[in-house]
Amino acid sequence: MGIFEIFKNGLKKTRGFVADGLTKISAGLGRYDEEMLDELEALLVQADVGVNASMRIMDQVRNQIKKTGDDSKEAVTFTMKKQMMEILGEKQQLEIEENSLNILLLVGVNGTGKTTTAGKLCLRYKNRGKRVLLAAADTFRAAAIEQLQVWGERTATPVIAQTIGSDPAAVCYDAIHAAVARRTDVLIIDTAGRLHNKQNLMDELAKVSKVIHREAPSACIKALLVIDATTGQNAVIQAEVFSGAIDIHGIVITKLDGSAKGGVAIAVAHKAQAPILLAGLGEAVEDLVDFDPELFVDSLLPNT
Ligand SMILES: Nc1nc2c(ncn2[C@@H]2O[C@H](COP(=O)(O)OP(=O)(O)OP(=O)(O)O)[C@@H](O)[C@H]2O)c(=O)[nH]1
Ligand SMILES: [Mg+2]
Predict the structure, then answer these.
(1) How close is the Cα of 71 to the center of ligand 2, in Å?
(2) Closest by alpha carbon to 136, among 93, 178, 182?
(3) Is 283 in the pocket of ligand 1 (CB under 6 A)?
(4) 278 Cβ contact partners less than 8 Å away, ≥ 6 residues apart
(5) Ligand 1 within 6 A of 228 CB?
(6) Rounded to whole angstroms, how far apart are CA atoms 260 and 13?
(7) The predicted structure's pLDDT at residue 114
(8) Ligand 1 pocket member 191 (CB < 6 A)
(9) How many angstroms separate the CA atoms of 128 and 105, rounded?
(10) Beta-carbon neighbour count of residue 296 at 10 Å?
C-alpha cells in the first residue's frame, strides 16, 4: 500500500464525515451559497477542526468567493485545502542523528498511546538497522512496565526497567548509561501518563528531562508529545499544558483511525508551537507514519 492509501484508509471515518458532508451540503448543486457555507463551517467544527481554525478556513473561502465569484465545489474545496495546509505547516520529519545517541522521550496523558508508539518507533529504527533500547520510566503501574516488556520481546529489543514505584529519573539514569555502554543509536523512553495529580506528572517530567540532559549532554534529545485524536479539543489543551512543563520537539497524533474527528490535527496545529511529526493510524506495530500535511488534507477532502 502506498503512503497516500495508508492515510486515506486510516482516515476513512473522518473522510466519510467531512468529504461526504461537503458534497451533501451543496445538495448536489456543486456550489455553495451563504447558508451552505455556514453549514460547512459547522461541519468542520463537528469534525473537531476547532472553532478558531474553522473560522479562519471559512473566512478565506468567503473572501475567495467574493474575489472571484466562483462558488463551485471545486473552488471551495481548493481554498479549504490550501488553508488547511497553511495551518498544518510544512512537512517536518522526526530526524535521527547518525553516530550519536538519540533519545526520544514519549510524554502525554494516560491512554494516548505512548507505550504503543514506543513499540512502533522501536520497530521503525530496528528495521533501519539501528541499535535500539527501551526504557520503562512509567513506574506508576506494574502493568506499564510489563506492557513495554512485551513490546521489547516482540521487537527483540532490550528493556531497561526497575520495579513499580521506583524513581522514573533513576530509570532514565540507568538507561542512558546502558545506552552509552552499548553504543545505542536510539533510546526510547516511555513515561507515565497518570500520577496522583497533574502537577505531580508535570513535576516528574521536568525532573526526568533535567536528568536526561544532565546525564547525556551530547545526545540528541527530543521529547515527543503523544496526543489522542479521539479526545477532541482536550488534545489542544494537552498540547498547551505539556509545553509549559518541558520543551516539546514534536507531536505524535494517535488514533486518527478511531473516529470521524481526525480534524483535530488541524486544531492542534493551529494552537501548538511544535509540529505534528507522526501519525498513529491503528494499533498494529506498522501503523505509525510520518505526518504529511498534504496527504492528510487530501484524505480529508474530496478530490479536486
Ligand atoms: N486505533 C488505534 N489505537 C491506538 C493507537 N495508538 C494506540 N492505540 C491504543 O490505545 C490504547 C492505549 O495505548 P497505550 O500505548 O497503552 O497508551 P499510553 O499512553 O501508554 O497509556 P498509559 O500508559 O495508561 O498512560 C491501546 O489499546 C492501544 O492499542 C492508534 O494509532 N490507533
Ligand atoms: Mg503506557
Answers:
(1) 48
(2) 178
(3) yes
(4) 94, 117, 224, 250, 251, 252, 253, 288, 289, 290, 291
(5) no
(6) 5
(7) 97
(8) no
(9) 20
(10) 28
* Pocket of ligand 1 contains residue 115 by CB under 6 Å: yes
Burial (CB < 10 A; 0-12, 13-18, 19+), residue 101, is buried
User: pLDDT for 201-247, tens place per residue?
Assistant: 899 999 999 999 999 999 999 999 999 999 988 999 998 889 888 99
> What is residue 132's DSSP assignment?
E
Cα 117 to averaged position of ligand 1 atoms, centre (Å): 8
Beta strands in the chain, from DSSP E residues, in sequence order: 102-107, 132-137, 159-160, 186-191, 220-228, 250-254, 276-280, 288-290
Rg (CA), the chain: 21
Q: What is the pLDDT of residue 187?
A: 98
Backbone angles phi, psi at 241, to 5 degrees: -65, -45
Separation between Cα atoms, residue 57 and residue 79, nearest integer Å: 8
**Ranges under pLDDT 70 in the chain:** 196
> Whose alpha carbon is nearest atom 21 of ligand 1?
111
Q: Is ligand 1 within 6 A of the CB of residue 110?
A: yes
Give the pairing type, strands 186-191 and 159-160: unpaired
Rounded CA separation 143/273 (Å): 33
**How high is the pLDDT of residue 200?**
87
